[in-house]
Protein: Type II secretion system F family protein
Organism: Paenibacillus agri
Amino acid sequence: MRWVSGVVLLLLIVFWCVFRVQSGNRYAGLRTLPMEGLRLRRLGEPMMLLIDRLGIGSRFPLVMFKIQRSLQRIEGTRYSAERTLLFAGEMLSYSWLLAAGGSALTLLTGEQTGIILGSLLALVLPVALASDLHKKVRLREQNILLELPELLNSIVLLVGAGETVQRAIQRCVESRKGNTKHPLYKELVAMTGEWESGYSFQQSLENFSKRCAVQEVSLFTTTVLLNYRRGGSDFVLALRDLSRMLWDKRKAVSRTRGEQASSKLVFPMVVIFLIVIVLVGTPAIMMLKM
């Protein structure tokens, strides 16, 4: 089995070296593209060339579309195709590392477990990475939905006190200036930046809604655009009705998260219960045998 693992390891190394030489500086522009979670940018350049050569995007359009859509929601629509290529290259890079590591382990120890385990992980890990990306999108949507009622309450209070809608939103953003990592306030900062760059209020709100890609945010922006010109009590009343609905949805999301957290505790509790049974039951059984 050692010679098989040695051949596989040699082929993997030769493949990476050949494709690295062929890729050259083709993907040099992607090395500095901001994107969270990437750790194997340089290692992934041969994999990106492989993706282009094999036309994986056209062969698996549904998979690539889902990945691109998720990346658009997290990172924005700009450079979404490049980020999709980077993420796909990252997935294949992990597969290459696991396959090479498993082959090297078998070569050193002579046990076939290494190459088998490495091959299985090389197949499973890309699926796990894509699943984790989609999970991050769902978590981002939930975080936005949990924070949106608080934002809306603040806007209602400020508008009721005589502030304009734009000024009320700016005050809410300024109050969180030290902590703008939250996805909702991150997009609000981008929206206020568009105002300062010359975008109209309507266009900025529409862009904000597209970037968030959450139905409740779209409902919020539509309500604001339909009523903010009226001002006065009508506008405040419309926002209060929307706020009540959003608070109900926030309760539903919080309830769902609580149920998920409790379900995750079931397995550790079962394990602890089994350990307690073993600790308590073993002395009793030993005493009976005596």
Q: What stands out?
A: The first helix runs from residue 2 to 23. The mean pLDDT is 82. The chain has two domains: 1-137, 143-252.
